Amino acid sequence: MTTSTKAAKIERLAELTAQNETSSGASLWREAFRRLKTSKMAIIGGVVIAAFIVMAVVGPWVAPHSPKALTWKDEVFLNRGEFVGPRGENWFGLDHLGRDMFSRFLVGARQTLLVGVVSMLIGLIIGAVIGVVSGAAATLGGAAGRRVDTVVMRITDIMLALPSLLLAASIAAVMGQSLTTVMIAVGVVQIPIFARLLRGSMLAQGSKDYVLAAKSLGIRKRRIVVTQILPNSLSPVIVQATLSLATAIIEAAALSYLGLGNPDPSVPEWGVMLSQAQRFFDNAPMMAVYPAVGIIITALGFTLLGEAMREALDPKLRG
Amino acid sequence: MSLLELNDVKVHFPIKRGVFFDRTVGHVYAVDGISLKVEAGETYGLVGESGCGKTTLGRAVLRLVDITSGEVVLDGTDLASLPDKEMRSMRRRLQMVFQDPLGSLNPRQNIESILSEGMAAHGIGANQEERREKIRAILAKVGLPSNALSRYPHEFSGGQRQRIGIARALVLEPDVIICDEPVSALDVSIQAQVVNLLDELQEELGLTYVVIAHDLAVVRHISDVIGVMYLGSLVEEAPSDSLYAEPKHPYTKALMSAVPIPDPVVEEARERILLTGDLPSPANPPSGCRFHTRCPWAQPKCKEERPQLREVGDGHRVACHFVEDIESGVLQIGTDRAAVVPAARTEDAGIEAAAAKAAEAAEAAEDKAVEEKSASVEATDSEAAETDSTESAKDSTAQGA
């Protein structure tokens, strides 16, 4: 076969492949978003989260009554076990001190969201930094890098081995009782999870051929990490971030419930409300139900969205 | 002087064990002393069964794996001892095409970004616009439309992806391209396209190829010189036609006899050598000649002394103590090691009988190797899928061309 006919063939090939193709490329992120939009789980999760966020933002302004004022304290008789249930004026009834439960619920959403987001971010940011260092060292750092990785990972293993609630409780005990303590405690517990996840994901990507290809092109190691390995390692971390918002809210509620949260009990927060309701559960179970259901639905919303994102980002995982 | 020269290249992977800090408990001798020369403008084919170290050798040339010892000389510069920084700029002259076209392209980069990354790293083209111009020209050369630029790897077919891989190597204007199984992941119909494209590019750009493959038909079609690898070393090297016409090393003979001949009369009449046993573990290679555990002509000497590659006429190099004796018929084939099966006999019965007979003999020899296998590392596993196809090498590519 002569060169010219070969060249003609290749040109023909180019023509053929040019057909039926739009000129715009769809990146994996965009494809994932498209899949996410069509997922029922994502829609339900998204609506729940949106409602929660709206409540957290506008709650204090739309609350019909003051969440702190003991407006109806004369109507509640603790010693006789007489509580006030839902009524026209107070949709969720009154709490044990005669405060409007509905207003407390609305205002409390903000604290709950704040705790969830801040503690997730603490875990995500510190965890991701540790994970990137460890993952990059392990994949491209050679023998010395692998040693760095081993040391860092053993430390996170130790952190991972501690029961999260116990760790959080001891941090709270050392730092004193405050909302910040709760956020730090819950966040610290998340650090090793994010670190391990990102490092593992980077390790998996680091052995792929395209990383080898980038190396053989002569691209600098730092750039390989940033442009090749990291973008492909992020999806499990994004999913985990969403899911850990749910756990963070629950854990923060648990810590508040244990009395490690905000020392001022008049500031409404769902976990605090739950813990206050415990004492009166026999006579006024609804006092516990509202914050509990709030926590469950919000956590469910984040979990649904997280699971939907997991599927959207990696359709192969769908079982 | 040859463009690319390998002198006694060894790549030994340490086997690590340990709880906190890993101890080295042994080595996998993936590449164990290989010397070869590749002339400018020619194609050097490297064949061998899975796990023989051919991929590792290819990666060692590019220093994608650490070279334990030996020299890789490209145009007078030894790459093995080059500092990292200088190596990075040398990489421009030495590129690679990978086996898995999808896996070797970053799924989150579009084609323009994939192709321009290497150029940016080597300062080719003053700005992105200039680079884009060049990429368009290369894309046309490999038969891809220029609207491919803004698209992502998953939007292309297997053959197109491999052409993107080739384009990525080409934009750096390399002297040598290492093609690691460039077509084995592609459909047979697409294989011919890609092989022809490689051929065409070589003619036009004067490229030098090292083609690693297990498909004998592909290698024959594309190569000028072929090296046959077995367990980390070269057992035979010869110009392509001469190797296929007259394989001299026992391993090559067995390999060649596995290729079916597209003529039913010849195919029925010819004899085939069936090797028994598996490839010994590269973590514990046999003493002496690496092939003596499976060689039907093996002699006591083979166990003790490792044969070196030696010239046996017309550019044919063979690593076997007894080439001449086998050639002249002084040494007869030992039936306990391998069976010579006339293909005319009922296939299954012949193979079974041979396998049963050979199994006993092989067991004794392989016992040690099998034990070691459990301790061996993943390096050998990754290519496991290839074994079968070596035996049923396709002719379609040669025909398609």
Automatic annotation (TrEMBL), chain A:
InterPro entries: BP-dependent_transpt_permease (IPR050366), MetI-like (IPR000515), MetI-like_sf (IPR035906), OppC_N (IPR025966)
Gene3D superfamilies assigned to the protein according to its UniProt record, in alphabetical order: MetI-like (1.10.3720.10)
CDD domains: TM_PBP2
Transmembrane segments annotated in the record for this chain: 42-63, 113-139, 151-173, 179-198, 237-260, 288-308
Membrane topology per record: Multi-pass membrane protein
Similarity section: Belongs to the binding-protein-dependent transport system permease family.
Protein name: ABC transporter permease
TrEMBL record, chain B:
ABC transporter domain sequence ranges: 4-256
Disordered as annotated region, ranges: 364-401
Keywords for this protein: ATP-binding, Nucleotide-binding, Transport
SUPFAM superfamilies xrefs: P-loop containing nucleoside triphosphate hydrolases
Biological processes, Gene Ontology terms: peptide transport; transmembrane transport
Biased composition (Acidic residues): 380-389
Start-end of Basic and acidic residues biased regions: 365-375
GO molecular function terms attached to this record: ATP binding; ATP hydrolysis activity
SMART domains per UniProt: AAA
PANTHER family: D,D-DIPEPTIDE TRANSPORT ATP-BINDING PROTEIN DDPF-RELATED (PTHR43776:SF7), TRANSPORT ATP-BINDING PROTEIN (PTHR43776)
Family stated for the protein in its record: Belongs to the ABC transporter superfamily.
NCBIfam families: oligo_HPY, PRK11308.1
Entry protein name: Dipeptide ABC transporter ATP-binding protein
